[in-house]
Design brief:
The structure holds 2 protein chains of 2 kinds. By secondary structure, chain A is an alpha/beta fold. Chain A has a single domain, classed as Amidase signature (AS) enzymes. Helices cover 38% and strands 16% of the residues of chain A. Chain A starts with 9 loop residues before the first helix and ends in a 7-residue tail after the last helix. Helices cover 55% and strands 0% of the residues of chain B. Chain B is mainly α. The N and C termini of chain B lie far apart (32 Å). Chain B has one helix at 8-31. The chains are: A alpha/beta, B mainly alpha. The A-B interface holds A 186-188, 200-203, 287, 289-290, 293-294, 296-297, 308, 312, 315, 323-324, 327-328, 330-336, 338-343, 345-346, 348, 352, 401-403, 427-428 and B 1-5, 7, 9-10, 13-18, 21, 24-25, 27-29, 31-33, 36-44.
Chain lengths: 461, 44
């Protein structure tokens, strides 16, 4: 890996394979060796395929056989979809999810199904059935979730990129805690067909990877929305000039409780943007508490509805935390749920009004670095927050509104844990956001994860 | 309470959450306009 780090982005991998087709099988062997060596301790994968699933002619397709992992809540035909649960341990998918079919058709190769918080209903990725997903930077820390296995697989080179889902932050939170890039596109940009739901209204499918360009390419190739699949859009995608860009920095809520090192790196990143000619403008987020309440009621209600039959029959087979959340969902009156849905439309209008004055909004992705596995609370700025609330604090809003959000690693804490900045733009302006991210990426680091960059020797645990 | 269960553990868990849900709903009710329609479906 050490001398081949550069090939660990999808785009560089494609270039390498075009010059040297033998690299395809060689890379699979490297990935396989890594999985064999690391997975028992990190629990990134629930199912590992002995050889990646791909089309025979993948070398002639855009992704050229690049190995991509799939969160184990999406179907891959003929293989288990456990959703990280005991209940679906033996469930075998009859048909692949639409996004998986698109990924294979684009020349991707699927090398396994990644660990997740049970049924994607949690943000630590502590999993009582398949093992807690472990943060590769410090083994006593959570990976974050619910797409924790995908983040760990990408961070450690067990895949070049990975599919994830995000209902309140489940792509961006593990991306932040594990030092990789994560992109939640606008709602329904990527199909949810063949993906087990947590919350139909708020679930988003997206990618984790080692560069913004990889995330842009993968989203372009597998999106369902015609607007996103417009080749002109992708061809026009390039690192944006930041001169004149108006960056909104919330004056309320998002920065109220932030770990010192996270804040320092966030401010340094703002300085980089400013140094490139971007303007930093204060914005005030309207009623952030309402976004949180709205998200909570919708997710819990819809999750309870999806799980109703399984939960009544087998609630003792769910993990303790998910069982409690589903029980709460069962108790929510329909009138509360409908009130939340009605409120959401108004909240979306308020959110969109922010973009009359700014192009993007920047906030720390998570207000803390990776919490300890045994922690139930974290202390931030002298205030004790429960881990779940702390991790969701800066991400959940953007599921309520369905806006694109990009998590980018932007440095480390003094004790060596990754920090991350989140860029958000208006609904449907995904290309704009990715273009800004692509430019910022070049200012922050080369287009590989900082974990890769920091690794001068192969991984040792 | 629309719980679909008689299990005491689940009833207990749900009961603990009710006050929180009530407060959240009241917050949203104060905010949402009288004539705000219901539109189902996700995102913006």
């Amino acid at each position: 890996m050490t001398s081949k780090t550069k090939e660990w982005t999808v785009i560089d991998f494609i270039g390498r394979v075009s010059r040297d087709p033998a690299w395809l099988e060689e890379s699979y062997q490297i990935v396989k060796d890594r999985v064999e060596r690391l997975n028992n301790s990190l629990h990134a994968f629930i199912t590992v395929f002995s050889h990646p699933i791909r089309l025979k002619d993948c070398l002639r397709r855009p992704l050229a056989g690049a190995p991509v992992a799939v969160k184990d809540i999406m179907h891959v035909e003929g293989h288990p979809t456990t959703a990280g649960s005991k209940i679906l341990k033996n469930y075998v998918a009859e048909k692949s999810a639409e996004v998986v079919e698109r990924l294979l058709a684009a020349g991707g190769a699927v090398n396994g199904k990644t660990n997740l918080h049970e049924f994607a209903f949690g943000v630590t990725n502590k999993n009582p059935h398949y093992g807690d997903c472990i943060n590769p930077w410090k083994r006593d820390r959570v990976s974050g979730g619910s797409s924790g296995g995908s983040a760990v697989a990408v961070a450690t080179g067990m895949a070049l990129a990975a599919l994830g889902t995000d209902t309140a932050g489940s792509i961006r939170i593990p991306a932040s805690l594990c030092g990789v890039y994560g992109f939640k596109p606008s709602y329904e940009t990527i199909s949810r067909e063949g993906v087990l739901p947590l919350s139909w209204s708020l679930d988003h499918v997206g990618y984790l990877g080692n560069s913004v360009r990889d995330l842009a390419l993968l989203t372009f190739l597998t999106a369902r929305k015609p607007a996103f699949r417009d080749l002109r859009g992708f061809k026009a995608f390039r690192a944006a000039r930041l001169k004149g860009l108006k960056v909104g920095v919330p004056k309320n809520y998002f920065l109220d409780f932030v770990e010192e090192d996270v804040r320092r790196n966030f401010e340094k990143t703002l300085d980089l943007l400013s140094g490139e000619g971007a303007s930093l403008l204060d914005v005030v987020f309207p009623r952030p508490d309402l976004f949180r309440d709205c998200r909570h009621i919708i997710v819990h209600s819809e999750a309870a509805a999806f799980h109703l039959k399984m939960f009544r029959e087998r609630h003792r087979d769910y993990g303790e935390d998910v069982r409690a959340r589903l029980a709460e969902g069962l108790a929510i009156p329909a009138s509360s749920y409908i009130t939340a849905l009605r409120s959401r439309k108004a909240l979306i209008r308020e959110f969109r009004s922010l973009f009359k004055n700014v192009d993007i909004i920047a906030v720390p992705t998570t207000v803390v670095t990776a919490p300890r596995l045994d922690a139930s609370t974290v202390e931030v700025a002298g205030v004790e927050l429960d881990v779940r609330s702390a991790l969701l604090r800066n991400t959940e809003f953007f599921n309520v509104v369905g806006a694109p959000a990009l998590a980018m690693p932007n440095g480390f804490s003094r004790d060596g844990l990754p920090t991350s900045i989140q860029l958000v733009s208006d609904i449907g302006t995904d290309w704009r956001l990715l273009s800004v991210g692509a430019r910022l990426e070049t200012l922050l680091s080369p287009s590989v994860s900082p974990w890769m960059k920091a690794t001068t020797q192969d991984i040792r645990f | 309470m629309a719980l679909f269960t008689d299990d005491e553990e689940l009833l207990g868990l749900a009961g603990k959450a009710l006050e929180r849900i009530r407060k959240m709903t009241e917050n949203l009710l104060e905010f949402v306009g009288f004539e705000e329609p219901l539109e189902v479906g996700g995102g913006g």
